[in-house]
Amino acid sequence: MAESKVSPRQLATKSCVVVGGGIAGQLVAKALLKKGVVVTILQANGFTEDTILSPYYVTRPELYASLVNKKGGPVVSLDRIALPGMKYGVGTATGIDSAGGFLLVDGDKKMPFDALVLATGVYYPALSASAGEDLKTRLKFVSAFAGKVSSARSILVGGAGPVALEMAAELRRLNPDCKITMVTGGPRALASWGDDSEASNLLAARLLATNIVVRTNTRIDSAKHPKMSLEPGTYAMTDGSGKATTMQADLYLPYFGQARTGFVPPAAVNARGRLKVNDRGQSTTLGNVFAVGCSDFYNCHIVPTIKAESDVVARNVEALLVGKPLNAVLDKEKANAAGSGVVGLHLGIGQWTVLNLRPLGLVPYLIGRCCGCCNPLCPCCGCCGWPCGFPAGALPSKCMEKLLPKMIGMKPHAAAVIPAAHIMTR
Fold this sequence. Notes:
This protein has helices spanning 8-11, 23-34, 54-58, 61-66, 78-81, 135-151, 162-174, 198-209, 303-321, 332-338, 362-370, 394-407; strands spanning 15-19, 38-43, 47-49, 75-77, 87-90, 93-97, 102-105, 109-112, 115-118, 122-123, 154-158, 179-183, 212-215, 219-220, 233-238, 244-249, 251-254, 258-259, 289-291, 344-346, 353-355, 392-393, 423-425. By secondary structure, the protein is α/β, with parallel strands linked by helices. It has 2 domains: 8-44 and 91-124 and 258-336, FAD/NAD(P)-binding domain, CATH 3.50.50.60; 135-256 and 343-407, 3-Layer(bba) Sandwich (FAD/NAD(P)-binding domain).
């Protein structure tokens, strides 16, 4: 059944606040704006960073600084990335009064809303700016971080998922001699690939060759060590047998993917900070609150799942604002199938890449395994003509270094202007 049209007049007196102006925030805000909803994006910083290639850029401070506000670069000021017609606020969300219909900002400011969308994403230390950090301070941090890594004798990395692995490889590039230890509660690095996967074996061999140690079935005491530390410290952990141990390190970087929802009532989020939602993308406890890119609905938040979520949430926010039933539904099975496994892992873009084509399904896997067709549109043979299902090595990585920075990144779409107020409109 076709959806009935909503008159712009019905939405003119309603407001929606989107917390977060990254990929997820921009997608849902654009969709809402097209529907005629009055939208304000609240950002914790006066700039937006690309998260996909963060390990690459944050360990190259000169390159990072040279690409500020450049097309395809890693960071763009809000006045250059702001969506035309959108309202913006710069501040840190510190609380929600769902019943009262307002968001607390910076502790004492109230931002009213009829609907609230959380698009806060996941915080990864060093790869993401801290709330309230300005661009000048961020540039100083990136420069100082590279110096800290280069001089460290030992680095402890919490987690062994794709982000942690890609970051560990960049740390090794910066510092060829320091001891790098990754700690994971799983049975292996990137456990989703399984221990019988050829790609997993290639990954393990690469980590061994670059002297990156992975301690498996071990958990760091996150209560004692919740945050990144760039100073020497001793870290408590428990191994698989329950035995308490400690480890000393000059730097500690935890990559456990905690959603940035500290301002949300604890009952509304899970242990990883993800908003608990139903199949409408709506909070299970806060009826006028939704999530895109930071919900517990999907196993993995990647671009396809974020796009699907933003579309459904935009339609349901529109319905909520005009008092209609929320009929748009998320397809969990389809989205989780798409995001069930990491297909490509870059242990340093330009250094070493491995692809695992099995998550793509039988047909793409067999094509990549057998034909070596060199078709530039083929996901397994693009540009390099890889004729196997588990390509790995330096050649594909060098190709990726040529391709990815050009394909991925921020896209400024206006000349720079100085924001005139805390809330600005473009």
